[in-house]
Design goal:
Nucleotidyltransferase, domain 5, 2 domains, 295 residues, alpha/beta, six-stranded mixed beta sheet, homodimer, 10 helices
């Protein structure tokens, strides 16, 4: 079967993968998610892991994106350097099986002392642009384990910066002296707002984190507030760095809704407009646009 | 036996403990270290854990300092608030067995939005002052899992601030996406110097950490440099926060020599004089001075 008759798109990450069946007319008619991320599959296991997808969703050409193309994935798809748009991604596809199985390259950014990489977010960002959900020039915030701030310039990824906010929060919650204080889910509440304000205003993250515990020990804050405050503190710090990437317009916040809502709330506390875009919809849009360029 | 005939001093931390036999003339004549920190002993186990110390070092009065006095230790010794000197610590001793077994209180600091606590470092700091190793007014840096910056005012702890540098480095090395890059020991080399300079100059720690990996992936830095650079970056960030605690004189760096040497090197890169004081000697001095106040 050819790409024009429909295809399978896979967002293949480090710990999970999501597969989607896309029909010839662009509708997504079937999907699945499992825990067969690249670490669970491991070297040598990818042909069989791909067969499982075909058995699950049907015999169609496959477009694979995310960490599957990293040096810990199946076959390395070299990064497309900035500026990178949909044509650059299509030109950089790594063909595992010519005409039938392709891996989307990530995007790299080098300028002066700055160095950065992404894998997976580029499909969402350029897909949202391709579908008109994001203007050609925009500042995009893409929260996740590694939050990305992306400058879209004339419809291409011109520059971007990664802030390790999600990973730092997870490390603190799972392994640090703050672990017992961070079990509650973070919410957008007064403690979150105070945390965001501190992070936006002060550049003392690695000290303020310890204060979270000290305040509880000294009766200056309630235990129940710690998770929301700490989440706000990390996100406010993230915004202080990311908003430096420029622009005055509304920020587009793209990704999983439970994360985009936290970042959008923090942006409004920072006095910036925020518009949320669902990451899954953007991913499917990106895959459709890439397939249009290769079919 | 009375305190005047000699005593046992114990630095009882979260994961380890160190015991010292101090003779009537102040000489330390025996010592041991083991992994019976408070987490390993656990609730109910402390009387027996104390007996082991007496069996090992002899039947003397015992002065216990560190996390043993925390809410996760044996008996909570309430924090002495700043300003706190040797007399305030002696007055705040928590007597487990009257006249024979005492726990040293920690120190707390509250001012405006600032809240902080320490347990264990106060004995070293005030001991070093008591022995004339630190002037009555000084800025002290005490690296460890939680680095402390202490203002000594007229021989008392006037204010202090904790930066989670050591814990953050350990979290990154053991559990993060940088783990495979941080296996080498950190050294004072050109990469360390670049990291310190970045941390002193820029307030983007949570973004710069990701760049460490990106630079290696993009061939802009060697893997072997990552541990020293990251250590320098965290310490430089720490110095930027801690040096804000004031003073122009040499900074006294106190603690374990392998850590004080890194921080002293970073201070010199920052253009500040640094003088190292051995934490173990300072701890024993502090215990002797406290015993003089109670015997």
């Amino acid at each position: 079967m050819s790409w024009a008759e429909g295809f399978i798109a896979v967002d293949w990450g480090t710990t999970n993968r999501r597969g989607y069946l896309v029909e010839a007319d662009g509708r997504m008619t079937d999907e699945f998610e499992d825990d067969r991320g690249i670490l669970a599959v491991g070297e040598g296991g990818f042909p069989e892991a791909l067969n499982q997808i075909s058995e699950r969703l049907g015999d169609r050409p496959l477009l694979l994106a995310g960490m599957i193309g990293s040096n810990r994935g199946w076959i390395e798809a070299p990064y497309a350097p900035c500026p990178a748009g949909l044509p650059e991604l299509a030109a950089g596809l790594q063909w595992v099986e010519p005409g039938r199985v392709a891996i989307v390259p990530g995007v790299s950014y080098l300028a002066g002392n700055r160095a950065d990489v992404m894998r997976g977010e580029e499909v969402q960002i350029l897909g949202a642009f391709g579908d008109g959900l994001v203007p050609a020039d925009a500042l995009i915030c893409h929260p996740g384990t590694h939050n990305k701030w992306i400058r879209l310039d004339d419809g291409r990824i011109g520059a971007f910066r990664t802030v390790m906010t999600g990973e730092l929060f997870n490390l603190l919650r799972e392994h640090s002296i703050l672990a017992d204080l961070l079990r509650e889910p973070a919410r957008v509440d007064a403690a979150f707002e105070r945390g965001v304000a501190h992070g936006l205003d002060k550049d003392d993250l690695s000290a303020e984190l310890f204060s979270v515990r000290a305040r509880v020990l000294l009766g200056q804050a309630r235990r129940e507030e710690a998770a929301s405050y700490t989440s706000g503190l990390l996100i406010g710090t993230d915004l202080r760095i990311g908003l430096g990437e420029g622009g005055d317009d509304d920020v587009v916040v793209m990704g999983r809704p439970e994360l985009t809502s936290l970042f959008a709330a923090a942006l409004r506390i920072a006095g910036r407009g925020a518009r949320e875009v669902d990451g899954e919809q953007a991913f499917l849009a990106g895959c459709r646009h890439l397939v249009e360029l290769i079919r």
